[in-house]
Write a structure and sequence with these properties.
This protein is an alpha+beta fold. It has two domains: 56 residues; 174 residues, Reverse transcriptase/Diguanylate cyclase domain (Alpha-Beta Plaits, 2-Layer Sandwich). It is 51% helix and 15% strand. It has seven helices and five strands, in the order H-H-H-E-H-H-E-E-H-E-H-E. Strands 2-3-1-4-5 form a five-stranded mixed β-sheet, with helices on both faces.
Length: 251
């Protein structure tokens, strides 16, 4: 014999009776504990991610900075130069590259004169103080977006993108003036023992990223030769020499 239940099915009525006897307000306690644990785990995870990011930033800084002066080292200078030239890469495949605007770039090389004598007279600690003082003047006299590098030993290099040749020369002259009166660069009571520098400047213009990198290689060599020319000038303390004008062009 087949029996049927009119209206709601028996199973449906049974389920409803269970939920009537169970308060939904009683259950969030377990869910809330689970939520609290997840929030805590997410907080710990976020803190760990922030710590790792900070460590990575510090590792990158250490890898790209000179530990004595805080300036870029060669690796850091190259990375920053690549970053600044990256926007010009979009022009690489333009068919009419000659119609692209020219951007000015300069390379400045600063070399401490007779640095071995500085170390001999005052010791290596004094030599370090001299390098730190010169780095400070470089940061003050050049723009914040200029790339200032401790190239090695007692030699510094600056890349200036978008600055005119006149501006670069003026900033270099102001650097010389500042070095001349800095008491940190005096090695004794004798004025002749004041630390001096020789500076070489080379200037050019480029249109594309590829043209910039090629030009800068040429400018480095030209600025280096100009710096040695400044060293040969007799009777001069801190001297500046500029490269020939015939390199003031680029593809």
């Amino acid at each position: 014999m087949l029996f049927t239940i009119r209206g709601e099915g028996f199973i449906t009525q049974f389920i409803r009776s269970i939920f009537r006897n169970t308060s939904f307000e009683d259950r969030p306690a377990a869910n809330q504990n689970e939520l609290d644990r997840r929030q805590y785990d997410n907080l710990i995870l976020a803190q760990e991610i922030d710590r790792l990011k900070a460590e990575n930033r510090e590792l990158r800084r250490v890898a790209t900075a000179d530990p004595l002066t805080g300036l870029y080292n060669r690796r850091g200078g190259k990375a920053e130069l690549d970053r600044m030239l990256a926007p010009f890469k979009r022009h690489e495949h333009d068919h009419v590259s000659s119609a692209l605007p020219l951007t000015e770039v300069s390379v400045v090389i600063i070399d401490v004169d007779d640095f071995k004598e500085v170390n001999d007279v005052g010791g290596h600690a004094t030599g370090d103080q001299v390098l730190v003082a010169i780095a400070r003047h470089l940061q003050h006299e050049f723009r914040s977006d200029d790339i200032i590098i401790r190239w090695g030993g007692d030699e510094f290099m600056v890349y200036l993108i978008g600055a005119t040749q006149e501006t670069v020369l003026k900033r270099s002259q102001e650097l010389v003036a500042a070095l001349t009166i800095d008491p940190m660069l005096k090695l004794g009571n004798n004025p002749a023992q004041h630390v001096t520098c020789s500076i070489g400047i080379a200037h050019g213009k480029f249109r594309t990223e590829r043209g910039a990198h090629s030009l800068i290689e040429t400018l480095r060599s030209a600025a280096d030769m100009a710096m040695y020319e400044a060293k040969r000038i007799e009777g001069c303390k801190s001297c500046i020499a500029t490269a020939p004008d015939n390199i003031d062009a680029a593809p």
